[in-house]
Amino acid sequence: MINLSKLKVLSIFGTRPEAIKMAPIVKKIEENENIEGKVCVTAQHREMLDQVLNIFDIKPDYDLNIFKPGQTLTQITTRSLKGLEDVIKKENPDVLLVQGDTTTVFAGALAGFYHKVKIGHVEAGLRSGNLYSPYPEEANRKLTGVLTDFHFAPTEKSKENLLKEGYPEEKIFVTGNTVIDALLDVVSEDYKFGDELLNNIDYENKKVILLTSHRRENLGKPMENIFSAIRDVVLKNKDVEVVFPIHLNPKVREIANNILKGLDRVHIIEPLDYLPFANLMARVYLVVTDSGGIQEEAPSLGKPVLVVRKETERPEGIKAGTAKLVGIDRENIFKEVDLLVNSKEEYKKMANAVNPYGDGKAAERIVNILLEKTICN
């Protein structure tokens, strides 16, 4: 227990997905008179992070601005560690919050541990079972878990994973996922896109597929298979349209341009800010992705998700039927996408399945747990 009248919490994040999932917590902390909140961003990503900060009106107290083109995992880790050490020394927080599975998360937890600060891990306990997939995220989660005092598990399955690894039950708290909190806050039927192309798509009469792909382990032949399968679906089905907000990674762009560029009814657009992306997700027919967070977000909007990966650290959606793991084989991806495009029965099964990732109150639970477990009144 921490004996103080006001809890000091330092929230650390560095990428767009982290910022989205930490934003509801940062805002809840701001509202709470019993907590002094500080925010430090590493800016492991820069432009995409800044977009989310603007949407949720978050003004970081510290910005390490570590991003450099072509940065390696080692460079991200060392720059984050050095910058975070200075922030932690200055602020002397009672609790340090990290979210998810990025290199910033592991570096943040390690920096906190070096200064004997209690660590809260938001979205703890996700496991794929393969240390190299997703890479380096699976290792980041496991390494962060060792240093964590408060494991905020989004689901019962995540809690089970942590218990199997020997973490004490009294340090594990099932909260739901904060991504649902964020999503429900920004989606609107009246939303107008800044890109007229997106406004002019016929979402009612076309079967619009939202495609995202960027995973390191999918670069090369797996990504070629994904894009080729999508091309085959478009060529076979005249009522299918694809929107692909393409990742900034030049390797992703090269593969996509070789296979999809110039194809009718395939719209390769620049990466979207979170607000238009969330509202696009709400309007499309289905989602094909290798992303982690989208596996949680899309089902809350009633959108089936086909996961183009060999493994997923989010098996709850697979079990619930909101998502399906379809692998990286071209023929199988084509078969599964084509099935959902043409079978109303299969589509409804997935679209109507219950989302296992929460009710939009995860951030409130996390803040209440921190207060309950750390402050002695």
UniProtKB/TrEMBL annotation:
Q: Where is the UDP-N-acetylglucosamine 2-epimerase domain?
A: 27-370
What domain of life? Bacteria
EC annotation from Swiss-Prot or TrEMBL: 5.1.3.14
Single Gene Ontology MF annotation: UDP-N-acetylglucosamine 2-epimerase activity
Matches recorded under Pfam families: Epimerase_2
Transmembrane segments in this chain: where? none
User: Which major enzyme category is it?
Assistant: isomerase
Instruction: List keywords of the entry alphabetically.
Output: Isomerase
Question: Which PANTHER family does UniProt cross-reference here?
Answer: UDP-N-ACETYLGLUCOSAMINE 2-EPIMERASE (PTHR43174:SF2)
So what family is this one in?
Belongs to the UDP-N-acetylglucosamine 2-epimerase family.
Protein name in UniProt: UDP-N-acetylglucosamine 2-epimerase (non-hydrolyzing)
Q: Can you name the source organism? A: Thermohalobacter berrensis
